[in-house]
Amino acid sequence: xxxxxxxxxxxxxxxxxxxxxxxxxxxxxxxxxxxxxxxxxxxxxxxxxxxxxxxxxxxxxxxxxxxxxxxxxxxxxxxxxxxxxxxxxxxxxxxxxxxxxxxxxxxxxxxxxxxxxxxxxxxxxxxxxxxxxxxxxxxxxxxxxxxxxxxxxxxxxxxxxxxxxxxxxxxxxxxxxxxxxxxxxxxxxxxxxxxxxxxxxxxxxxxxxxxxxxxxxxxxxxxxxxxxxxxxxxxxxxxxxxxxxxxxxxxxxxxxxxxxxxxxxxxxxxxxxxxxxxxxxxxxxxxxxxxxxxxxxxxxxxxxxxxxxxxxxxxxxxxxxxxxxxxxxxxxxxxxxxxxxxxxxxxxxxxxxxxxxxxxxxxxxxxxxxxxxxxxxxxxxxxxxxxxxxxxxxxxxxxxxxxxxxxxxxxxxxxxxxxxxxxxxxxxxxxxxxxxxxxxxxxxxxxxxxxxxxxxxxxxxxxxxxxxxxxxxxxxxxxxxxxxxxxxxxxxxxxxxxxxxxxxxxxxxxxxxxxxxxxxxxxxxxxxxxxxxxxxxxxxxxxxxxxxxxxxxxxxxxxxxxxxxxxxxxxxxxxxxxxxxxxxxxxxxxxxxxxxxxxxxxxxxxxxxxxxxxxxxxxxxxxxxxxxxxxxxxxxxxxxxxxxxxxxxxxxxxxxxxxxxxxxxxxxxxxxxxxxxxxxxxxxxxxxxxxxxxxxxxxxxxxxxxxxxxxxxxxxxxxxxxxxxxxxxxxxxxxxxxxxxxxxxxxxxxxxxxxxxxxxxxxxxxx
Length: 767
Known about the structure:
- By secondary structure, the chain is mostly helical.
- Helices cover 64% and strands 5% of the residues.
- Helix 18 packs across helix 19 and helix 23 packs antiparallel against helix 24.
């Protein structure tokens, strides 16, 4: 293998014309069907000079490698000493459009022989042959054939005619086909290896000239192993070892790629070019360029079919999923036996394949090369969403789930874009199964459409009157959010006021109040009254959820991300877009407080997110909502808390919350759990010091004050945080006068702690 070979671009003309490759490139790139090549070469070696040779016909769809195989046979003959001493391999243009008669074909053979001589450095012999050809009457087929045989005899060689698209030649010499057969039978020094994209009727019609004349080699799609070898070889030639690593690490990727291409080598090479780029760049543009690149290939394949086959293939392609004969018959208005006969024809041509239907004896059918199906969908689907299925299926086929998620994370940060960006967001949403990602991408698309003021496109992208009617409510809220943002920026210069209004968007479960604000601008009394309501609600939000959560929700509305907080799916999507899992946690905990649907495991994980978040304001609310006393859910909550305490070396905030839950159960000794919680305490952490009195307050209210005091003394035997310990001691003994015996520097901070832990006890003492 020549190390100087440079890999061609996947858009290079050489992809469609292997004759432009040099011999080294052909040797290097042809790896797909070595067994077939070896078999043909072996058969050539067995050919007897005096017997009629076995002519061959290679049949396969466009792109299956017929032209490349013919080119490789020619080089194999030249490379083999035995064959090179016997055969002259003659190659022709892929389409011999100049053939109008058998005479033209023989003249083309003379031209091909002259080209071969010139390529071997025999310029004199080539010139002499060209001069002889000039003297031949172009209508004299016998004269041209005699000149060809004479030249071969002079060189003491037999002629191997490697004829691509031989069906075109046969079609143009139909009136002289018997004459061609007779010539080939009479002159064993000529052997034809032809290639055709379709099975020739002459080969199976017993009345035709070439019935039972050719040995037929059918090129079906590459096997998965052959495709792997092809792509790996390309990658190594192109010094792209990372592609090899990706294929080895993710065998499923290769299987999907094989399904998409139907094993078509040319399509595999094209898709390899996109695969090489990964998720960087404009994936959609790359795929559109690729589909444009294969248009001549697929268009020719479609147009070669008879009209009835084209009609059936159209319905099968638009259906996309496997379909049975009855389904196709209904769509076409045909009888089932007509559909079956056309399906047999398409299966024989290698275009359609049988698919076993799950839990059914009935066979289904689909287009074997899914990328061909994708190309057809892109060109012919009417509705925009349906037309985008080509992009959806490409994304699913070419990229792993992790890569799609990474692509989604890049896309969902978009705040500006055009219709094309909207379409890509929707297609990426359809390609993913993750509900939060799907919602985030769809919401992002709706927000862009609102900014573009392209309401009509929404009707093309979504089934608003059917399965996706819920999109209308989301669209309305986003539109109101845009108007709401304008109001905030126009009428409320105070940043805090803007935040109140922004946060209110998350509290409102329906859109009536938002609409009232929008519709009543200019009516001062109504507007002020509604603003006052939102101000109160927003202040309560900050109190419940903490300032950081309020800031997050307010920031979201800057791009019209106005999801109600009770919408768990929407909040999960928003959390993805803002990289703020805390928002999902808030929604989950609310759902737990309002219904029994949330699972304990979900709550357990959510509690960790909430309590890890550095937002003091939400902690008491989380404790009341998450660990609320509920006769039916209480054992479940305690079990979750015990798992956290037993298995998780979590910080103080999580440990204390779990311990609080455990303290509700009188059947459990809380002492070891309280001690474990206290062991997580960091006296330098301001947040933990603020949380500590709350912890003690709940312990006192539950009658576990003495247990907490015992755990404290066991954990801090050296008297750390003495003021708090003394406040806890007074509360546990229900005697505030115990503080009076303390030194002043301990007594005053102890009273401050007691005011939080047991405020009524301190008030009673003061009276």
